[in-house]
């Protein structure tokens, strides 16, 4: 069973790689960002917090995450996209994953310089129906028809927090709160550094080489 964490600054490609891993290995894709955006539809305070780029309280994130993890099938592995984001969250995860006998085997650190992230943020478009991710600033990742999803032909949207102001908050939060997880997982010998400036196919190829069949 493969249980994977994707660790990365905002817009480094966690969601894109998570979708590819999900399809290829039939893993459950658990994105705390997606779970929170869904929950924020009926919660104004949460919506404002997401828009600002600050972290949401552990209490809210953990309750959503636990529900998903505890409902996995016995042999089902998972990809965590957006969790843990702090050392305290990593400690919580350790406890839950031991309890359900699904401990983390791989932590992929997707590395991308800040200038590239800024370009990705301003060009990112998402299909709100099927979750497909596009980028207008990258020739290879533009939709064929302007603002229409290639897969399901629904309209593409921009995420509320995908603007440079919110990006700066998310990036600084990443440096301060999430980056300490690099040495945390390095010490456990399960951290793999991936050059994520490459195309999504090349990045995915690297992940497959490490994960095997
Ligand atoms: P990105 O990686 O592009 O910032 P995500 O979709 O992973 O996007 O997260 C969007 C927002 O959701 C974050 O800026 C934060 O407000 C909130 N969030 C997601 N995961 C967590 C988490 N583990 N702890 C606290 N807040 C979170």
What is the H/E order?
Answer: EHEHHHEHEHEEEHHEH
Q: What's the number of extended β-strand segments? A: 8
Which structural class best describes the helix and strand composition? alpha/beta
> How would you name the CATH homologous superfamily?
P-loop containing nucleotide triphosphate hydrolases
Q: Mind telling me which CATH architecture this is? A: 3-Layer(aba) Sandwich
Work out the radius of gyration: 16 Å
> How does the overall form come out from the CA principal axes?
globular
What count of structural domains? Answer: 1
Major sheet: size, sense and barrel closure? 5 strands, parallel
Averaged pLDDT, please?
A: 95
Strand order of the biggest β-sheet: 2-3-1-4-8
Which CATH class?
Answer: Alpha Beta
Fraction of residues in helix:
40-55%
Q: How far apart, in Å, are the first and last alpha carbons?
A: 11 Å
The total count of helices amounts to: 9
- Low-pLDDT parts are none
Small-molecule binders: adenosine-5'-diphosphate
CATH topology: Rossmann fold
Please report which band the strand proportion falls in: under 5%, 5-15%, 15-25%, 25-35%, 35-45% or over 45%. 15-25%
Characterise the protein shown here:
- With 213 residues, the chain is of the alpha/beta class.
- It has one domain: P-loop containing nucleotide triphosphate hydrolases (Rossmann fold), CATH 3.40.50.300.
- It has nine helices and eight strands.
- The strands form two sheets. It has a five-stranded parallel beta sheet with strand order 2-3-1-4-8, with helices on both faces.
- Helix 4 packs parallel to helix 5.
- The chain is globular and about 45 Å long.
- The protein binds adenosine-5'-diphosphate (ADP).
- Adenosine-5'-diphosphate binds next to helix 2.
């Amino acid at each position: 069973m493969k249980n994977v964490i994707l660790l990365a600054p905002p817009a480094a490609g966690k969601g894109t790689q998570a979708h590819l891993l999900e399809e290829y290995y039939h893993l459950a894709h658990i994105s705390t960002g997606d779970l929170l955006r869904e929950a924020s539809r009926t919660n104004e305070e949460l919506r404002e917090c997401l828009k600002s780029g600050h972290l949401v309280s552990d209490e809210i994130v953990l309750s959503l995450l636990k529900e998903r993890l505890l409902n996995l099938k016995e042999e089902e592995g998972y990809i965590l996209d957006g969790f843990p984001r702090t050392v305290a969250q990593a400690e919580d995860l350790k406890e839950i994953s031991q309890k359900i006998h699904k401990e983390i085997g791989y932590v992929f650190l997707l590395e991308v310089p800040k200038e590239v992230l800024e370009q990705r943020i301003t060009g990112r478009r998402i299909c709100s129906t099927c979750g497909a991710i596009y980028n207008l600033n990258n020739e290879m990742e533009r939709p064929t028809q302007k603002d229409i999803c290639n897969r399901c032909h629904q309209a593409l949207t921009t995420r509320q927090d995908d603007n440079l102001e919110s990006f700066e908050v998310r990036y600084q939060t990443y440096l301060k709160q999430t980056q300490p997880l690099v040495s945390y997982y390095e010490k456990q010998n399960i951290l793999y550094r991936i050059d994520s400036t490459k195309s999504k196919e090349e990045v995915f190829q690297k992940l497959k080489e490490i994960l095997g069949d």
